[in-house]
Amino acid sequence: MHHFHYLNNELYCEEIPVRDIARAVGTPFYLYSEATLTRHFQAFDSGFAGMDHLTCFAVKACSNIAVLNLFSGLGGGADIVSGGELFRALRAGVPPQRIIYSGVGKTAAEMREALEAGILMFNVESPQELDRLQAVASGLGVEAPVAFRVNPDVDPQTHAYISTGLAKNKFGIPVEDALREYVRARSMSNIAIRGVSCHIGSQLTRIDPFIEALGKLKKFISLLEERDIRITCLDLGGGVGITYADEQPPHPHDYARAIQKELNSMQCRLILEPGRVIVGNAGVLVTEVLYTKVNTGEDQEKRFVIVDAAMNDLTRPSLYGAYHEIRPVVDSGAPPQLVDIVGPICETGDFMARDRLLPRVSQGELLAIMSSGAYGFTMSSNYNSRPRAAEVLVSGGTFHVIRSRETYADLVRGEVIPVREEP
Ligand SMILES: *Cc1c(COP(=O)(O)O)cnc(C)c1O
Q1: CA distances from 283 to 10, 32, 33, 312, 368 (A)
Q2: CATH number of 4-31+281-411
Q3: What is the pTM of this model?
Q4: Annotated catalytic, 62?
Q5: pLDDT single digits (tens) 79-92
């Protein structure tokens, strides 16, 4: 359920025609609906209402500070994976005590920044990382609160690139080795054991892999208890998947119920790190049709719709072969045609959709690439020296540019032509 809808054949975001925003800010731009962001955050968070829990939004899914500030205001925290995301979360006003730090490659400098900020917990992913964290914390004379990210070796049944809970993935510490690390951590002067964490992958459309992982975590936690190591936090990682095409992911409440049932009487604070399920369908990428053309080969005709958004703006189709629904902003009711919707970048991999039935469109028309709120803008780049798109947030009948379109000057910021001595 989201607040992008048609009224008189015209796409609206909440109460505003998308066309009006395009006229004001130009294309391409990311467009988010505040009502949808709020609704999705609350739909997820309220599933766990009966439990002591904290919903830490995965910043990498959509990291604009206006979005982080919105979730913080709803009682959420942040799951960060870099010093840059820490900076954003703090800038957005997320209380440090609601920030979780995940990721396999935290640098000493990033650890120091997070310790100085006083974050809730580090999810440690290797023995060497633990040693470094102990050293950094000791240097600052503070305690580092930690959980180990355990790799439960569970198949999340999702795309290989976003599957993280298998032994062959780079993430976490194998369950078999984790006990040893907890014992080691216990003896460290500047490490405070707080929890166990696990994140098996993204865009999961079934609940059972989560439950299988949770089952393994429970067994592991009882092993810890036998060693008198008590944890107070259980971090279950990212959220469930969303519908891009015809996926039927579980409702967040069903996910919450299943977890509650499996946790049973376990006494600890639950931490959740949803990203996609909250923002995915709350954002679209709006683009303009630059040209249409037909390339005729020996035995086929291929129709192309060339738009002003490209793989640097939305990488998911190129990177994962991901499907995004594409809709005309003004639905003319024209008959559908089979087309490839492609961007201006000099790569054959630069497409938004291939072999897609789209009502016949012409130059100057606007298209909305749906479900682009998660891993959309955040994965964008300047490839082909294309300024990154603007981001716009709609709230009822008003809209705010929450990130202005980059300028050419932004493109070369920090670049220097070396001054060379004459020979
Ligand atoms: C990416 C990530 C998430 C968010 O995953 P979603 O599928 O977007 O909910 C949560 N936790 C960690 C550690 C991640 O890397």
Answers
A1: 17, 4, 7, 17, 10
A2: 2.40.37.10
A3: 0.96
A4: no
A5: 999 999 999 999 99
